[in-house]
Structure formats: C-alpha cells, structure tokens
Design a protein that fits this description.
Order of helices and strands: HEEEEHEHEHEHHHHEHEHHH
Helix content: 25-40%
CATH architecture of the largest domain: 3-Layer(aba) Sandwich
CATH topology of the largest domain: Rossmann fold
Oligomer: single chain
Distance between the termini: 51 Å
Strand order of the largest sheet: 1-2-3-5-4-6-7-8-9
Number of domains: 2
CATH superfamily of the largest domain: Alpha/Beta hydrolase fold, catalytic domain
Radius of gyration: 21 Å
C-alpha cells in the first residue's frame, strides 16, 4: 500500500471517529413519559425506558424474545429490542426506539449473517401499531420470510414514537431514517453473529424511510457498511419530492376511500408534531372526526374500516387544505438530494393508486439525473400492496449481487414514463 493510500485511510478512519464522537457527545435525553393524546399506551412496560436515555445513538437498552405469534416461519429466533436514537424533529435529543430482529435458520456464514434493514409501510400513529408488538400483515410476513430464506437477518425498526413514548412523526425524513440506521447499529453491537453488510429495504412509508436512511447514512452513520437499497410503493408527491431538473411527468390526484381517505388525517398528526400550535380540528371534516380520534388508539385496518363506515374519502376527509402548515413542514418530510452512493432498486405497480407510478418515475429520474445507479421495474396490474412480493423476482437477484460485491449496471437510460412502460 502506498504512503498516500495509507494516509487516506487514516484520514477516513479519523473522520468516522470524529463524526461518531460528535454524535455521541452531549447530555443524556429525558426519561420518556407516555402521553395518550399523541397515541401512547396500550403496550407493555418493555417499551417505556425508565431512566434518562443515553446520549450515544445505536445503543441496545434491552431485549426480550418475541412471542410465538410474532415469529416468522423462516427465522430461528426473534428478538424485540429497545435502543437509542436521535429525535428527528429537533435533531439532537436522545430518544428510545423499539424494533425487532429475526435471525435465519442454520449456521451463520463466516463473517456473520448479512442484514436486511426492513422499513415497514404505514400502520398508524398509535403505539399499539408498532410492528414488534402488533401482528404483521400476511403480505409482510411472506415478504420477510422470503428474505430470511435467502440467508439474511432482518433488522426491523418500529420508527420514532411508534411503540415508545412520544408522537410518531409519520413521513418525517430524519425521524424515520435515523430510526432505521440506529437499529442496525444497536444490532451489530449486541449480536456478533450479524455482519456489517447491510441492504435497506422498505415499502410505502417504509420506502420513504429506506431511501431517507440511505441518503442520511454517510453523515449520520458512516460506520454502517451499506450495500444498497430496495424500495417499493415509493411515496413521491409534494412535499416529499426533492427539487430536480430531471424530466418529470404529471402525477394524478388521490381519490376514493381506503388508505387515501385515511392518510390525510395521519398527516395532520405530523403537522401537530412539527407545530404544537397547529389546530387539526379546524381541518377535519365532521365525517372524518371519528377516524381522526380513533387513530390515537387503533391501527390502519381499523381506521380504514371506520372511514368506510363514515363514507370518508380523499375528497371529503378535510374541511379545508392545510396548505400553509404543510409548506412549513415540507423541509422535514422532503427527501434529501437523491444522489445515492450505492445502487437503488425501485419497484412500481402500474395499478398503484396510493403511490402513483408516475410519481415513482419522477423520483427515479431525479435520482438518475443526480448521478445515481438506479434499477427500476414496473409491475403491470399490481397495486400498492401487490407490488411488494411481485418485485421479489427482480429484487432478490439485485440484493444477491450487492452482497456479493458485484456491480449493478442500472437502467436509467431505458426507463420510460409508466404508461409508456406498460
């Protein structure tokens, strides 16, 4: 090795050390105190750290085995974890976050199990919706079992404020991304059978979290050896869309009930987190008020059913649009410039009416324009949920290449707008 290379390595190591020391500096965080008005409660004492929160992010606070009904068929063991992170709203306060870790069956390979850092889709804003506590959907169970079958461990965050005390900042970039990264850090420190070789995978809200974590990793968690990212159902409309000069197409407006009638209410909770003076009651329609109130104690399936009973749709969920508050919140929710240091896989369903394929195409183009390596795929007839497992036929080979250190060519030059690509 040349003297220049040696010096370069020393500088890189010193930089990482200084960054980690900076992140670990400062006072411990306050003792978490549940607040039912923001969705806290209904979960065991495990989720409430009873001391001041240590200032070092990515530190395991405690662990316990998952109950049998929360286990995955292809895992040898499942662990519920509580770990430290950083508040993604004020960017400094140490907080506790919960999550789960699943280990594959068999003997760990030399160097340990590679890690899939899983970021789940929207479940709600109440603590009882934390995926280390609530039953995962069959879709997600099938999906995670597929990754375990490949011999990868699953490290799955619940996100800031989901399970643990404090509000859940739904679709807030740093709150989601740092929760993902610190779960990986805590897992690596606590379980030597895991390898520091990581692919971040997410769907819907989790796609926003996965892509955000990837873009934040270099500065916030340079100690993680990130190989790449897989995202399906990417949330990409205002305010999430990053500024770009890349070619863009028009994105349809959300219509109808189901998830499209519920998510504006979840967004109001985020606006309340970002601005305590924001009065959500001024915006919630009379029909949607029972759904809005229920969100503090119930999860997405129940919210959608309540919305259906009250005939709540995207068209009538709000009395007026919270445009001014949304504009103030945009900087918290927008993706950083999508210049990815590692390859990214984007899977889009052409029947997705929640995260329209047109918006996902726009994100792909923005990332390509910024110089990223992107592999994009369309899935005809697949909706928001159906794309998740349908994409495995392409994402499994993509991830195998990443963990094997093989190059990814990407397909930026051949990606067409979705209707042309169908």
């Amino acid at each position: 090795m040349s003297r220049g290379a040696t010096l370069g390595n020393m500088i890189a190591i010193l930089t990482v050390s200084l960054l980690m020391a900076f992140k670990a500096s400062g006072a411990d965080g306050p003792k978490p105190v549940p607040d039912p008005s923001v969705g806290d409660g209904g979960v065991p004492a495990f989720y409430v750290w009873d001391k001041m929160v240590p200032s070092t992010p990515g530190k395991l606070l405690r662990q316990e085995p998952l109950a049998s009904n929360l286990m995955l068929a292809n895992s040898s063991k499942g662990i519920r974890v509580l770990y430290t992170s950083t508040n993604g709203i004020d960017n400094k306060t140490p907080i506790s976050v919960s999550g789960a870790i699943y280990f594959p069956k068999g003997t760990a390979p030399a160097g340990g199990w590679p890690i899939i850092a899983w970021a789940h889709g929207t479940t709600g804003i109440a603590d009882v919706c934390a995926q280390s506590w609530a039953q995962r959907s069959q879709r997600d169970i099938d999906y995670l079992n597929a990754w375990l079958e490949q011999g990868y461990a699953i490290v799955a965050t619940d996100y800031q404020g989901l399970g643990t005390p404090g509000p859940h900042p739904w679709h807030v970039t740093k709150a989601e991304g740092w929760s993902v990264l610190d779960n990986v850090r805590a897992a690596l420190k606590a379980f030597p059978e895991l390898a520091n070789s990581v692919v971040i995978v997410g769907q819907s809200q989790g796609a926003h979290a996965a892509l955000s974590a990837t873009l934040l990793a270099k500065e916030y968690a340079p100690d993680i050896k990130l190989r790449g990212t897989v995202a399906t159902g990417v949330s990409i409309y205002s305010p999430f869309a990053p500024p770009t000069k890349a070619p863009q197409v028009a994105v349809p407006q959300h219509t109808g009930g189901g998830l499209n009638g519920v998510t504006p209410l979840l967004n109001l909770y985020t606006l309340m987190v970002l601005d305590p003076a924001f009065n959500a009651s001024e915006y919630v329609s009379d029909a949607a008020k029972p759904v809005f109130d229920l969100a503090r104690t119930a999860c997405l399936t129940d919210l959608e059913q309540e919305a259906d009973r009250n005939h709540v749709t995207a068209e009538n969920v709000l009395k007026k649009s919270p445009d001014e508050a949304a504009a103030r919140a945009a900087s918290y929710e927008r993706y950083p410039t999508p210049r990815f240091a590692q390859p990214v896989f984007i899977g889009s369903g052409l029947a997705d009416v929640t995260a329209f394929a047109e918006g996902q195409y726009n994100f792909v183009m923005a990332a390509c324009y910024a110089g990223s390596t992107v592999e994009a795929h369309y899935y005809p007839s697949k909706d928001h949920g159906g794309t998740v497992n349908a994409s495995l036929v392409d994402s499994v080979p993509f991830v195998k290449k990443l963990f094997a250190g093989q190059s990814i060519a990407g397909n930026c030059s051949s990606v067409k707008p979705p209707r042309a690509g169908s």
